[in-house]
């Protein structure tokens, strides 16, 4: 059973999300929160697997709450009406495991929760296109300049250090490329002819070697490094 905390300041929206998730046989909403402070407290109290986190909330926003939960063992799936702005980049840097837009269908929401609970990051397609477009155009002299390992541009892009990338094995680079294309562990295992547990192990090692906090960050790194098709 996937145990979820729903954090959303609008009661009607929160109730709808809870209703959708509770209707799934393998998902249980264990707590609700109306702001970031309540979300962090609820996550720590319940030891939930995942927090479905709104971005704009009173007292403490979703980004600050995500940052507090980083490394706690609880994943954060950001739910927002904004397809790309400082909130998305802020959540990415804070270690969010995924990003969804509030116009997602009910089936898409429950499946996203399952995907993130399996340790596979998720970004809504519209957000993915905008992220890739932004990163592709970030080499215009902003920040420290394009192509420099470890450079942090004004857009928030972060390239892994060159030394870290060099530590990746050829197979790990293949796996990273698959992650950058948005493939799940099951899909990349099928493509590379390996088992799903092996794929998961490769992803974990890649995150450790590149000092990345989430699969989403790994997907962006693959794009920045030019590993994707």
TrEMBL record:
<dbReference type="Pfam" id="PF00072">
    <property type="entry name" value="Response_reg"/>
</dbReference>
<dbReference type="InterPro" id="IPR011006">
    <property type="entry name" value="CheY-like_superfamily"/>
</dbReference>
<protein>
    <submittedName>
        <fullName>LuxR family transcriptional regulator</fullName>
    </submittedName>
</protein>
<dbReference type="InterPro" id="IPR058245">
    <property type="entry name" value="NreC/VraR/RcsB-like_REC"/>
</dbReference>
<keyword id="KW-0805">Transcription regulation</keyword>
<dbReference type="InterPro" id="IPR039420">
    <property type="entry name" value="WalR-like"/>
</dbReference>
<feature type="domain" description="HTH luxR-type">
    <location>
        <begin position="161"/>
        <end position="226"/>
    </location>
</feature>
<feature type="modified residue" description="4-aspartylphosphate">
    <location>
        <position position="54"/>
    </location>
</feature>
<keyword id="KW-0238">DNA-binding</keyword>
<dbReference type="InterPro" id="IPR000792">
    <property type="entry name" value="Tscrpt_reg_LuxR_C"/>
</dbReference>
<feature type="domain" description="Response regulatory">
    <location>
        <begin position="3"/>
        <end position="117"/>
    </location>
</feature>
<dbReference type="GO" id="GO:0006355">
    <property type="term" value="P:regulation of DNA-templated transcription"/>
</dbReference>
<dbReference type="GO" id="GO:0003677">
    <property type="term" value="F:DNA binding"/>
</dbReference>
<dbReference type="InterPro" id="IPR016032">
    <property type="entry name" value="Sig_transdc_resp-reg_C-effctor"/>
</dbReference>
<dbReference type="InterPro" id="IPR001789">
    <property type="entry name" value="Sig_transdc_resp-reg_receiver"/>
</dbReference>
<keyword id="KW-0804">Transcription</keyword>
<keyword id="KW-0597">Phosphoprotein</keyword>
<dbReference type="Pfam" id="PF00196">
    <property type="entry name" value="GerE"/>
</dbReference>
<dbReference type="GO" id="GO:0000160">
    <property type="term" value="P:phosphorelay signal transduction system"/>
</dbReference>
């Amino acid at each position: 059973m996937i145990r979820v905390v729903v954090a959303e300041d609008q009661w009607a929206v929160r109730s709808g999300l809870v209703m959708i998730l509770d209707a799934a046989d393998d998902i249980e909403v264990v707590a609700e929160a109306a702001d970031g402070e309540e979300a962090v407290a609820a996550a720590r109290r319940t030891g939930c697997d995942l927090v479905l986190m709104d971005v704009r909330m009173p007292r403490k926003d979703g980004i600050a709450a995500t940052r507090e939960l980083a490394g706690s063992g609880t994943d954060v799936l950001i739910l927002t009406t904004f397809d790309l702005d400082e909130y998305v980049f802020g959540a990415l840097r804070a270690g969010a495991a995924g990003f969804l837009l509030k116009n997602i269908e009910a089936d898409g929401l429950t499946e996203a929760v399952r995907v993130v609970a399996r340790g596979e990051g998720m970004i809504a397609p519209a957000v993915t296109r905008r992220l890739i477009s932004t990163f592709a155009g970030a080499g215009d002299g902003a920040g420290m300049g394009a192509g420099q390992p470890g450079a942090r541009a004004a857009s928030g892009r972060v390239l892994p250090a060159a030394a870290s990338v060099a530590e990746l094995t050829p197979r790990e680079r293949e796996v990273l490329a698959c992650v950058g294309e948005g493939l799940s562990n099951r899909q990349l295992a099928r493509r590379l002819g390996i088992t799903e547990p092996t794929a998961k192990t490769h992803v974990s090692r890649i995150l450790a070697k590149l000092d990345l906090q989430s699969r989403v960050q790994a997907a962006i790194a693959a794009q920045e490094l030019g590993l994707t098709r």
